[in-house]
Design brief:
Elements (H helix, E strand, L loop, with lengths): L2 H5 L3 H9 L3 H23 L10 H13 L9 H27 L6 E3 L12 E3 H14 L1 H11 L5 H8 L3 H19 L1
Antiparallel strand pairs: 1-2
Length: 190
């Protein structure tokens, strides 16, 4: 394994123990991943309107509630955990946006900026989360791996190397497909 993995906290060990039913392992896991998840949640929400009802801490707590039911997953490592957490956060954010849209009956949709990682447009662009979710679902029907790459980069904040590791392909493949996915999303969301 690379040096980074050897020096990181024993997240994989805690994930495996948690899967085997050790509740204390989940508590230990939280100590190691909570701040990272909160940082990622803050990044998602930092460009939201000031009175947004979902705050980073709340997003992380809701994600943990969803993750508690995922004990049966055969956890591979830290990156796999953050990939699953990204899916949970995506679902929470999209559900929140849909609820607000429904409650407002045609009011302004919940928007999150499509951050620099996506670079869908040259200027800072806000993207309707519901539209982004629909675009990712459409992309997944066409190319599931490209949709997964976008999800891991945008919602999990993973690097190209981490994404390649999670998906089990080379960094070159991830880079190429990331570029194609961005171009596809640019056309779909503009």
């Amino acid at each position: 394994m690379d040096e980074y993995r050897e020096t990181e906290p024993p997240i994989t060990k805690f994930l495996q123990k948690w899967r085997q039913g050790d509740a204390e392992a989940f508590d230990e896991l939280i100590k190691y991943v909570y701040n990272d998840l909160r940082r990622r949640a803050f990044a998602y929400l930092k460009h939201e309107r000031p009175d947004h009802t979902l705050q980073p801490t709340g997003l992380v707590h809701e994600a943990f509630i969803k993750l508690v039911d995922k004990r049966e997953i055969e956890w591979e490592d830290r990156n796999h955990f953050f990939a699953v957490a990204a899916q949970a956060m995506r679902r929470i954010l999209v559900d929140h946006a849909r609820t607000r849209k429904r409650d407002k009956r045609g009011g302004k949709n919940e928007n999150l900026p499509l951050d620099d990682a996506l670079k869908v447009a040259a200027s800072q662009t806000s993207v309707d989360l519901v539209a982004l979710d629909e675009a990712l679902n459409a992309l997944a029907a066409f190319d599931e791996r490209q949709a997964r790459i976008v999800e891991l980069k945008y919602f999990a904040g993973m690097t190209l190397d981490e994404t390649a590791d999670v998906l089990g392909v080379s960094r070159v493949t991830i880079t190429r497909e990331w570029q194609m996915a961005r171009a596809w999303l640019r056309g779909r969301l503009e």
